[in-house]
Write a structure and sequence with these properties.
The complex is a heterotrimer of chains A (485), B (643) and C (112).
Chain A: H1 17-45, H2 62-87, H3 91-120, E1 123-127, E2 132-137, E3 139-140, E4 143-144, E5 148-158, H4 165-168, E6 170-171, E7 177-178, E8 184-185, H5 188-221, E9 238-251, E10 256-259, E11 263-266, E12 271-276, E13 282-291, H6 305-308, H7 312-333, H8 341-345, E14 348-350, H9 351-362, H10 370-376, E15 396-400, E16 404-409, H11 416-445, H12 447-452, H13 454-484
Antiparallel strand pairs in A: 1-2, 1-16, 2-13, 3-4, 5-9, 5-12, 6-9, 7-8, 7-9, 10-11, 11-12, 13-14, 13-15
Helix pairs in contact in A: 1-11, 1-13, 2-3, 2-13, 3-11, 7-9, 11-13
Chain B: H1 10-16, H2 23-26, H3 31-36, H4 41-71, H5 84-89, H6 97-133, H7 141-160, H8 179-182, H9 194-222, H10 235-266, E1 278-279, E2 282-283, H11 292-326, H12 333-346, H13 362-389, H14 399-422, H15 424-430, H16 434-464, H17 470-497, H18 511-514, E3 517-519, H19 524-530, E4 535-536, H20 540-554, H21 556-568, H22 634-637
Antiparallel strand pairs in B: 1-2, 3-4
Chain C: H1 6-35, H2 48-69, H3 77-99, H4 104-110
Helix pairs in contact in C: 1-2
Classes of the chains: A alpha+beta (485), B mainly alpha (643), C mainly alpha (112).
The complex binds protoporphyrin IX containing FE (HEM) and copper (II) ion.
Copper (II) ion is lined by residues 304, 307, 353-354 of chain B.
């Protein structure tokens, strides 16, 4: 059986099947990305000032995004050129252009992963007064210092539940535990399962025996069975295992629910008892950026951030730049009263701009007004660049949890901007991978079909190309929306 | 199943021996290629149908347990409390709040996404559409197979989530955030919780629907046979086309919502988590800044078109059966076609009528209220046309016709009770009450489900060569009709009295609401049922529950009928046992791989019943004009593009 | 289109190259407007004008891709119909979802 119009177009619609199919699929993709963009706009507009995190800007690495845009555009051209070659029945040249497309796709993905890496290694630390220090979390004793570090001596958990979440936070090798009966336990999960089964069986058995006994008694005494005389079938499921020697716990934000200096409680209710490591709840951060957007202007000078970033030069540089920018605004609007409130508060400054500013000042060069704006106008080394630039003198601060409102890397959970950035670019990246796989398949394994029915092969490439252009088209919007706005 | 080659259609017997595409019949593919990983649209349709029926049964079972908890809260559930799974979840044999929530969420999910839609669109759409437009198969047979397997995988995932330590999803079929984001968070592995698995399963189900939709639309656009112009397509095909577009364009936003919720659960994002959220008295550790309203928008952008996905195939099946059994053309075929297109269009513009009380802006509420009222116009056109088609016909009341006829008033009740809900002021009172439950169940249960039953009875002979038993059919129909109304009619009353839709005790805890008088003391019924005491609103719970269990018993004749008739039913004596006019009745019984023995041609419109001057009371689409026995000139039959 | 002469292909390739150039220029302009201080349109920093210009260029670029690369400049009616409805629903979705932030009743009571 042959399906009609697989290769040739139907007369009245002028289309072959796959062409309709791919356009329908693209229609659904339009709705998919339409939904995502709608979510973007909705979330961005819906931010309640003073309650939600402000929508960050100037945090992207624009050069990388820019290059990626060009790469995708080029690949789009290469796809059509490949298709033209196929239409000209030139298999080898088709393969060449296709190879260029795949190369572009790989470049794109490579640059994307550099960006992702940079974000995951860039942290933001929000103080309780909403001032924000961004930079790189340092390690303490080989553990990232944004984790709670805890010296455990025993674990307490429910053996009827299968999860022992506390063990996931153990740093290094799992310790050997001692069971209440003195046995050695190397694998608490399977030990728990066995013990639970044994306990339940024992309780059941005890119950059965008691029931038989009671039945006999009841019969002898000619009365009903007295339930209250029977043992309960419930077993004690909460047990504590002592560790043979102390072990180290390193627990991130979503693992534990709370901690004291004696115990730390995990999401599934399991607990570790011991003691908080010395400074186990302080975060050590190398500060790269300071962001005061959420701090009222008149409180910025007294912000608690300055008690940690104690370098007077940095502080002075910050306010110099701020004043410079303020002057720029006053020039634009005419007078200070006319400057909209949201403009004045817009302040995020990279430490190396402060340094650069100092140098200019020292060398007597009349620093162009652009410096204040460099921070404002797309910081070419946003957190996409990774932690490569350390020739500057970045202050390293040590902050106890009690002064921290929120700490996290610039991953998806940092705020809704990063959430939608990762979701959208991630989905787009998956599309790139999918498209590259299909086109790569055509390039490597399409010859047989090409020899048998070149038009069919050309159709396939056309359809695959349509998908590829669409992926490019999405990026054309993603780039300004995510990087520049 | 037993092929019937005898036929009363002369041109077909003539070509039977020497048709020219018979290479396919030579090598019989192995069993697993033919029935398991088949690319034949009929086999896939049947696979869809059987899987969907099983899921419908499962969903029904969940509902029966819930109805026990509602009618007799605090009493152990009979029969099931010793089953191993239930021993874990029941507390002293009683349904707990958790279990009730789980069953509620899964009942809705299973019925809608795994039951009705696959049965209506997947099974009937797959089986009937290519036959009716004279296509050898779907445009992309392998995609079709992928669509079924993706559905099955989603279904299995959904079902398997019952057996996780957390149990299945518990946050309602609508899966609203932040509730859905924050349930079962105490489990160590968030991935292996029912709530997360629900999202994953949905991604598979959505993919399945998208593949299906692409396939259906392409098939209808490009694979119509010679002469099958747009306006000669049976109404069923039109409905499938519109349904396809609904699925294609409405499902992606739900996919967005599912992905975002998955991110919220697994990656800790805050798409739907507002700032300052507390869960169980504890600060919810997330950045905040998200919006639960966004979830509802994305969900209902699918949600409302989805209800039309539920109803359109049923209307279409009824639209096929009614003309056939009244022996009259479908009244206002063209009007119906335009109505169904308008309906499809408008259904994208009404979604937020599910969200009047969310605190969404009043401006947008007004817009949605207006469009919601507008959309009832095409719905009424459809149902009125079908009703008028019956006027003055000599009606054959066989089983499919019974179900099809009953569909009309049942859908009517459901639709009309939707109108009050469309007004935001009235909805303030009725939202999330049993009134809403009654509204949509009238449309979906005695509505869509009856339509689908009608379809099964109607097309059964095409596949098996045997009719289903009329006696058992009647035994199925009448009790079903009675008990369907027994379940849902009381819910209107309860809903208006203020009963909330998600209470596991059926509202008993709210004494002032529960104790409202329904029938006064000493009235006739109160003497029979309550020793003369007044019958209160909460007593209606028992009426509905008992009806529900009886409805289950009423399905027994159907199950017996289904299996018995496959081998023992009355054999049909032609390929066209109902004397119908559409193309599917021209192919052999059951249709072979590739469907038609000879290239089919549509010579006329789809509903030429009782044409004046014709010999018989039906003139099939596939019969050349008896006036001019030669085949019409080629160009006359050329398919015309567009319309 | 099944017959594809070298002359025709040259015509195609020419068009593709022109579009390629336009896309690159568009990208440069977008980035320049966003990054170079003296090209800052409207109010200092990001403003409505910046967004509009950025989006406008993006729309032009996207249209070029759709029309030339994806051959929408000479496509069949059916495809136009499908995409027209799709775009329509996508815009409706975005517009109505965002529209729901607007609450005239609440505003009347809170904004004095
Ligand atoms: C004639 C037109 C209809 C109108 C005006 C209408 C109106 C409404 C409204 C306003 C609601 C929201 C009630 C609330 O939650 O407070 C609703 C709920 C619902 N309707 Fe309809 N409806 C109509 C037809 C249908 C049809 C044909 C179906 C399905 C096949 C349907 C299925 C549903 C469902 C499933 C819900 C409830 C969803 C939920 O909250 O779980 N409706 N309807
Ligand atoms: Cu609705």
């Amino acid at each position: 059986m042959q399906i009609p119009y697989e290769v040739t177009a139907r007369r009245d619609t002028g289309l072959y099947n796959a062409k309709i199919g791919i356009w329908l699929f693209l229609a659904s993709e339009v709705m998919l990305f339409g939904g995502l963009f709608s979510a973007y706009v909705f979330l961005r507009i819906g931010i309640t000032p003073g309650v939600d995190n402000p929508w960050p800007s100037e945090v992207q690495n624009i050069p990388i995004g820019f290059v990626n845009t060009l790469v995708l555009i080029a690949s789009s051209v290469f796809v059509v050129l490949a298709w033209v070659q196929l239409k000209m029945r030139n298999w080898f040249r088709f393969q060449l252009w296709m190879a260029a497309v795949i190369l572009c796709a790989l470049t794109f993905l490579g640059l994307k992963s550099v960006e992702y890496y940079g974000k995951f290694h860039h942290h933001g630390l929000k103080f309780t007064d909403n001032s924000l220090a961004e930079g790189i979390v340092q390690e303490v004793d080989g553990i990232m210092s944004d984790k709670i570090r805890f010296e455990g001596k025993s674990i307490t958990f429910d053996i009827s539940a299968k999860n022992l979440y506390c063990l996931k936070a153990v740093h290094g090798d799992l310790p050997v535990f001692k069971a209440p009966d003195g046995a050695e336990v190397t694998d608490p999960a399977s030990w728990a399962a066995k013990k639970y089964a044994a306990d339940v069986n024992a309780a059941k058995k005890a119950y059965k025996e008691a029931l038989a006994e009671e039945k006999k008694l009841a019969k002898e005494e000619g009365r009903e069975i007295d339930e209250s005389k029977l043992p309960s079938m419930d077993v004690d499921t909460v047990v504590t295992l002592e560790a043979a020697e102390p072990f180290l716990i390193a627990s991130g934000e979503r693992m534990h629910t709370n901690y004291t200096d004696k115990t730390i409680t995990f999401r599934d209710g399991s607990k570790v008892t011991g003691s908080l490591a010395p400074n186990g709840d302080t975060v050590v951060l190398e500060v790269h950026e300071i962001d005061m957007q959420r701090v009222p202007l008149d409180e910025q000078k007294e912000s608690m951030i300055w008690s940690y970033v104690a370098d007077e030069g940095v502080k002075k540089g910050f306010f110099d730049l701020q004043n410079k920018y303020k002057q720029h605004l006053i020039d634009y609007y005419g007078s200070e009263e006319k400057v909209p409130l949201k403009q004045k508060q817009n302040h995020r400054i990279n430490i190396h701009h402060v340094h650069a500013h100092h140098e200019h000042a020292e060398h007597g060069a009349e620093g162009e007004a652009a410096h204040g704006e460099a921070a404002h106008h797309g910081d070419p080394e946003g957190d996409g660049a990774g932690g490569a630039e350390s020739s500057y003198d970045y202050p390293v601060i040590e902050v106890p949890r009690s002064d921290i409102k929120f700490i996290g890397n610039h991953g998806p959970r940092y705020n809704t901007y990063y959430a939608i950035y990762f979701t959208m670019t991630g989905l787009h990246g998956l599309h790139v991978i999918g498209g590259a796989l299909v086109l790569g398949y055509f390039m490597l394994f399409g010859k047989k079909l090409f020899l048998r029915n070149p038009e069919h092969m050309a159709n396939r490439v056309e359809v695959g190309g349509l998908f590829w252009h669409f992926v490019d088209l999405v990026w054309i919007f993603l780039f300004p929306v995510m990087y520049l706005f | 199943m037993n092929p019937q080659s005898s036929t009363d259609l002369s041109h077909e017997t003539a070509v039977h021996g020497h048709d020219d595409h018979h290479e396919e019949h030579h090598h019989d593919p192995p069993f697993w290629r033919k029935y398991v990983f088949s690319t034949d649209h009929k086999v896939i349709g049947i696979q869809y149908g059987i899987t969907a029926l099983l899921f419908l049964a499962l969903g029904f079972f969940l509902m029966m347990v819930m109805r026990w908890s509602i009618a007799y809260p605090g009493r152990p559930v009979p029969f099931i409390s010793h089953l191993p799974w239930f021993r874990v979840w029941l507390e002293n044999g009683m349904v707990t709040g958790d279990l009730y929530n789980m069953f509620g969420a899964m009942h809705g999910t299973i019925m809608i996404f795994l039951g009705i839609v696959p049965l209506a669109f997947g099974a009937f759409g797959n089986y009937v559409t290519p036959l009716q437009i004279g296509a050898p198969d779907m445009a992309f047979p392998r995609l079709n197979m992928a669509s079924y397997w993706s559905y099955l995988l989603g279904g299995v995932l959904m079902f398997a989530s019952f057996f996780l330590p957390s149990g299945a999803a518990k946050a309602g079929w609508t899966n609203y955030s932040p509730l859905a984001t924050t349930t079962d968070l105490s489990f160590g592995s968030l991935f292996w919780t029912g709530q997360t698995q629900w999202l994953l399963a949905m991604v598979f189900l959505i993919s399945s629907s998208l593949l299906g939709a692409v396939n259906f639309i392409t098939t209808i656009i490009n694979l119509r046979c010679k002469g099958m112009t747009w306006m000669r397509m049976p109404f069923f095909v039109w409905a499938m086309l519109v349904t396809g577009f609904l699925l294609l364009l409405a499902f992606p936003p739900l996919e967005v919502a599912a992905i975002m919720q998955l991110m919220d659960r697994m990656a800790g994002t805050s798409f739907f988590v507002p700032s300052g959220l507390f869960v169980n008295g504890q600060f919810f550790n997330a950045a905040g800044g998200g919006s639960p309203l966004l979830y509802q928008h994305l969900f209902w952008f699918l949600g409302h078109p989805e209800v039309y996905v539920l109803i359109l195939p049923a209307i279409a099946i009824v639209g096929e059966i009614i003309p056939n059994n009244t022996r009259k053309p479908l009244w206002g075929y063209k009007t119906m076609v335009y109505a169904v297109m308008v309906l499809g269009f408008l259904s994208f513009l009404v979604w937020a009528h599910h969200m009047y009380i969310t605190g969404m802006g009043a401006g947008v509420s007004t817009f949605f209220q207006t469009v919601t009222v507008l959309i009832s116009v095409p719905s009424v056109i459809l149902i009125t046309s079908i009703l008028i088609s019956m006027w003055g016909g000599s009606i054959r009341f066989n089983t499919p016709m019974l179900f099809a006829t009953a569909f009309i008033p049942m859908f009517g009740i459901g639709g009309l009770t939707g109108l009050p809900l469309a007004f935001s002021m009235i909805d303030l009172h009725l939202h999330d009450t049993y009134y809403v439950i009654a509204h949509f169940h009238y449309v979906v249960a005695p509505g869509t489900l009856f339509g689908l039953f009608a379809g099964i009875y109607f097309w059964f002979p095409k596949q098996t060569g045997r009719r289903m038993s009329e006696l058992l059919g009647h035994l199925h129909f009448w009790p079903s009709l009675l008990f369907m109304n027994g379940i849902f009619a009381p819910m209107f009353i309860q809903g208006m009295a203020g009963f909330h839709r998600r209470a596991s005790d059926g509202g008993a805890a709210y004494e002032r609401i529960a104790g409202q008088e329904f029938l006064e003391a000493g009235s006739f019924l109160s003497k029979i049922f309550k020793n003369g005491e007044a019958i209160t609103m909460i007593d209606l719970n028992i009426v509905a529950s008992v009806s529900a269990w009886c409805l289950a018993i009423a399905q027994v004749p159907f199950i017996i009928n289904f299996f018995w008739s496959m081998t023992k039913g009355k054999k049909v004596n032609s390929n066209n046992p109902w004397d119908a006019t559409t193309l599917e009745w021209s192919c052999p019984t059951p249709p072979p791989h590739g469907n038609f023995l000879k290239e089919p041609v549509a010579y006329r419109g789809p509903y030429e019943y009782s044409v004046p001057g014709a010999e018989r009371d039906f003139t099939p689409q596939f019969e050349p004009d008896p006036e001019s026995p030669q085949a019409p000139a080629e160009e006359e039959l050329e398919v015309k593009g567009g319309h | 289109m099944s017959e594809f002469t070298p002359a025709e292909s040259r015509k195609h390739v020419k068009a593709y190259m022109a579009v390629f150039l336009a896309l690159i220029v568009g990208t440069f302009v977008t980035v320049a407007v966003a990054m170079i201080p003296w090209l800052d349109l409207g109010e200092p920093g990001k403003s409505f004008l910046d967004y509009s210009v950025g989006l406008l260029i993006a729309i032009v670029k996207a249209s070029l891709v759709a029309l030339i690369f994806m051959h929408l400049n000479h496509e069949k009616g059916m495809i136009y119909k499908i995409m027209l409805f799709t775009m329509c629903f996508a815009f409706v979705m975005m517009f109505l979802i965002v529209f729901s932030w607007w609450n005239p009743i609440q505003e009347a009571f809170t904004s004095h």
